[in-house]
Amino acid sequence: MKREYDFSKAKRGPVVPAAPGKTRVTIRLDNDVIEHFQNIVDRAGGGNYQTMINAALREYIQGARLEAIVSRAVRKEVKAVRDSLKRTG
User: Fold this and answer.
1) Which of 37, 41, 70, 86 is the most buried if burial means most Cβ atoms within 10 Å?
2) How far apart are CA 70 and CA 73, in angstroms?
3) Considering the entire predicted model, what is its pTM?
4) Which residues contact 14 (CB under 8 A, 6 or more apart)?
5) Is 4 helix (H, G, I), strand (E, B) or coil?
6) Exposed (0-12), middle (13-18) or buried (19+): which is 76, by Cβ within 10 Å?
7) Tens digits of residue pLDDT in 15-66
8) Backbone torsion region of residue 20, taken as left when φ is above 0, otherwise alpha when ψ lies between -120 and 50, otherwise beta
């Protein structure tokens, strides 16, 4: 090991750049959440727990969108039925 190192030409930032379409973030998660995803990866025989978290977040977002679409459609149908009942009632 050297007594001193020359960092004058060093570059700041990650050693491996993020893939296109990906953004490096720092996020604090509860230990049990991380352990949950790490256990899933271990049981599957390998993989990346961060990829699993990303997939879970994406699934949640898509489900939330679906829920909003279904909710909007149901409200529209209920309104149509009420309006129809008012006209005939």
Assistant:
1) 37
2) 5
3) 0.60
4) 24
5) coil
6) exposed
7) 777 889 998 889 999 999 999 999 999 999 999 999 999 999 999 999 888 8
8) beta
